[in-house]
Every structure is written in structure tokens, then in C-alpha cells.
Write a structure and sequence with these properties.
By secondary structure, this protein is of the alpha/beta class. It is about 45% helix and about 15% strand. Bound molecules: NADPH dihydro-nicotinamide-adenine-dinucleotide phosphate (NDP).
Amino acid sequence: MEITFAGKRALVTGAGKGIGRATALALARSRAEVTAVTRTQADLDSLLLECPSIKPVCVDLADWDATDAALKDLGPVDLLVNNAACAPLQSFLEVTPEKFDMSFNINVKAALHVAQIVARGMKARGSGGSIVNISSQASQCALKDHAVYCATKAALDMLTKVMALELGPYQVRVNSVNPTVVMTKMGKMNWSDPEKAKAMTSRIPMGKFAEVEDVVNSILFLLSDKSAMTNGVTLPVDGGFLVC
Ligand code: NDP
């Protein structure tokens, strides 16, 4: 199945590392005009060395006003990938207000905010669009020490559904992908302990973690016209983890 995004304008958040970076590069290879948003300038510099056509925006998306300022000259966007997130693990009894606010600010509030900015333009132009929120298997299954992360991703799943409901009439589709562990910077931080990793892979019917490309391929499918009638789904990319 060949997917081309020629003539489409895409925005990817958290495009400095991991899944977001790979998604931005894959979209550019598929001929989209890509805007990459992240907060570490060095990551944008190296991304541009790899793909000079990408337009960089450096901002901390947890800062609502700074995001408005950074995206004020964004121009039309047809495809949005809300990918930026953090996953600081704490046991439930040790959750701090700082980590709680930081997590909800980036994982939920920033996704809502960037989608508002983009979807207002989509509605005004009447040309439709596709938004993919990067959620997690953790939205639907309790994981030890993941109380806040699980709660942010559960919130994101429901945000995805309400956005699908309200934006559908404008031919803007909104879906999420919900991966299992991927060994990016975030994945390595939380799943490098072999015993912990083994306990997780033993619960995944396919017996392994996902690769970055597995997630990117599902994102591209949901962004593309190949999923033209798919709206409001949360698509697991988890080797079957969520069936158990
Ligand atoms: P990484 O930590 O590897 O990359 C996250 C990217 O988001 C980085 O470029 C990071 O920048 C950026 N980012 C984080 N916070 C902000 C912010 N406040 N403003 C702007 N940019 C920000 O994560 P992954 O690639 O692993 O994760 C991507 C998505 O996939 C996330 O939504 C995550 O929750 C989800 N996911 C990941 C899984 C995994 O096991 N890896 C499993 C399931 C879901 P910087 O490095 O400068 O902070």
C-alpha cells in the first residue's frame, strides 16, 4: 500500500527524538511539507541536517502562551501528530503536584491546544484534515508506578473521541495510536531493567516490544486517505497486550 502526502502540510510535535522524529522524517519522505515542533534546539539542528526541507519550531509546549507565539505564523496544516509527552514514573503514594501538572500540561493540555490552533484553520478552510494523538496501552491498562501517565493517556483517548465527534462534521478525522513499549529515550528510561522488561513482554501475546517503525506506519495510515472513514478510534500497536 503506497501512501503519498504530496501537497499536504503536516505538523509533528515532539519531533526531536524517538517516534516523533521518525514520523516527521517519514512524512517528509512521503512528500509532505513538515513542521517539526520540539523544545531542544540541538535536536532540531540535527533533524534539519538529516532533512533540510523540514521547518523547525522550538518551543516548550507545556507553556500555553509561548506555544501561541511560536505557532502564530504557522499557516495552513492538513495533518497533525500530537506526539510530545513525558512519562516520569512515581508510585501512587509518592505522586507530587509538580509531576502531575507537568504531565497533564504536556500530555493532554498541549495536545488540546495545538489541535485547537490547527483545527480552527481546518474548519475555516473547509478542506478537512486528519489528527493523530499518540496515546499508549497505558490508557487502558493499569501499570505499576504509572498512575499519572495512565491518567494522562486515558484523558487523551477520551479527548480523541470528543474531538472526533465535534470535528467530524468539518471532515476532520481524529484518531489515536496506542503503542506498547518502544525502546526510545522514554522507553529506555522506564523499561531498561531486564526483569521489568521481561515481565512486560511476557504479557504481550507476540512476546516483544514494538519498533518505532511499527508505530510510524500506523500513524501514516491514520493520517492518510487510506483510513478516510476511520474517525475516533484508539488503535493499539501492542502485539495484542490489550486483549488480555
Ligand atoms: P521520547 O522521549 O523519545 O521523545 C519525546 C519527544 O517529545 C522529545 O523530542 C521531547 O523533547 C519532546 N517533548 C517532550 N516534552 C516536550 C515539551 N514540553 N515541549 C516540546 N517538546 C517536548 O518519547 P517517545 O518517542 O518514546 O514517545 C513519543 C510518544 O509515544 C509519547 O506520546 C509517548 O507517551 C508515546 N508512547 C511511548 C512509548 C514508549 O515506550 N516509548 C509507549 C507508548 C506510548 P526533549 O527530549 O527535548 O524533552
